[in-house]
Design a protein that fits this description.
single chain; about 375 residues; alpha/beta; Aspartate Aminotransferase, domain 1; Aspartate Aminotransferase, domain 2; 2 domains; three-stranded antiparallel sheet; 14 strands; about 35% helix; about 15% strand
Length: about 375
């Protein structure tokens, strides 16, 4: 069976080369007579796997020695709480920039845990279609928080705010290793793996050691303390062993394809190809403003998405969107339905998506436009 082009926002497509390697080792990992799925996480066979995954993260992201690399569970959503519980303990105040759904969820979680949240900027006035420009953040904040790439709205920071001595925290779930990123500009980075790193199940956390507190906010569970995992090499409890194994293979694939620099070049080429088509089309348009556009997630609308709320207009828009998704799926281009907050369609073009997939999408979009004008 021919594989489809998978434009899912997550879990997303993985490099075919990695999938084949995993399949070949499924029943017998390197002569052990067992699958990595079955191994004890404390066995002599598994220890090199997690050690290699950490080493590759450090190498590809240039992680300094004074940062811990952790493999945790609970996804990015659990990090909303862990960040607040571990970092919001001195003044109890934090600065957040609100750029959409995931920022709003992080803000709500911090408030629930008693952190005083100051929303210092927001793009809500234009349905989060741009990134606010906040060059410098000052104040007596325990940390400042941003979502670096917004999967739903398709926006991305093209700059890093200057926070001085305030630790900068960033959710990089949907853009990790999509381009070079200076880790030293941040106090903490986290990424759910299911977009650019591995199947769902493991969350990568990179945290500067001096930010790991001995005591968190009162009542913090043991499993939500960074110290717990940092002191136990991410093995306080059983980690998501198989997902970390796949993550390691993906990282070696990234290295073979030029590392973060190679991914950046590859992703810029794909995104430019798609955005250039959208910007020159009289049938489609991108929803995000230039200067804030994601390389990873590209939402777009048709000419029938006018914003009108009368029954006939809404019905016509739904009809054309449903038709697009159905016909695209039949053509082997899957998971293109847009998020309900944006509407239309969305193409997620993560690291593992090749330029051939983007070209196939654009060819289909041209044909669909011609047939539905």
């Amino acid at each position: 069976m021919k594989r489809v082009y998978n434009f899912s926002a997550g879990p997303s497509c993985l490099p075919e080369e990695v999938l084949k390697e995993c399949a070949a080792e499924m029943l017998d990992y390197q002569g052990t007579g067992q699958s990595v799925m079955e191994m004890s996480h404390r066995s002599k066979f598994y220890e090199p796997i997690i050690a290699d995954a950490e080493a590759m993260v450090r190498k590809l992201m240039n992680v300094p020695d004074n940062y811990k690399v952790l493999f945790l569970q609970g996804g990015g959503s659990t990090q909303f709480a862990m960040v607040a519980e571990n970092l919001g303990i001195k003044t109890g105040k934090a600065a957040y920039i609100n750029t959409g759904v995931w920022s709003k969820k992080a803000i709500a979680e911090a408030k629930k845990l008693g952190v005083q949240v100051d929303v210092i900027a927001t793009s809500e006035d234009k349905n989060f279609s741009y990134i606010p420009r906040v060059e410098k953040i000052t104040g007596d904040y325990d940390y400042a928080y941003i979502c670096f790439n917004n999967t739903i709205m398709g926006t991305h920071y093209e700059y890093i705010p200057d926070t001085g001595n305030i630790p900068l925290v960033a959710d990089i779930s949907s853009c990790v290793l999509s381009e070079p990123l200076d880790v030293t500009k941040f106090g903490l980075l986290f990424a759910g793996a299911q977009k650019n790193l591995a199947p769902a199940g493991v969350t990568l956390v990179i945290i500067r050691e001096d930010l790991i507190p001995d005591e968190c906010r009162p009542g913090t569970p043991t499993m939500l303390m960074y110290k717990t995992h940092a002191e136990n090499g991410s093995m306080y409890n059983t980690p998501p062993c198989y997902t970390i194994y796949v993550l390691g293979k993906v990282l070696h694939w990234v290295e073979k394809n030029g590392g973060a620099e190679g991914m950046g070049k590859r992703n810029r080429e794909k995104a430019d190809y798609l955005y250039n088509f959208l910007d020159n089309s009289d049938f489609y348009h991108a929803t995000t403003e230039k200067g804030s556009r994601s390389l990873m997630n590209v939402p777009f609308l048709t000419k029938y998405s006018t914003g009108a709320t009368d029954e006939a207009s809404v019905a016509k828009e739904k009809e054309i969107n449903d038709k697009f998704v159905k016909e695209a799926t039949a053509a082997g281009l899957v998971n293109l339905k847009g998020h309900r907050l944006v509407g239309g369609m969305r193409a997620s073009i993560y690291n593992a998506m090749g330029l051939d997939g983007v070209k196939a999408l654009v060819d289909f979009m041209k044909k669909f436009a011609d047939e539905n004008k």
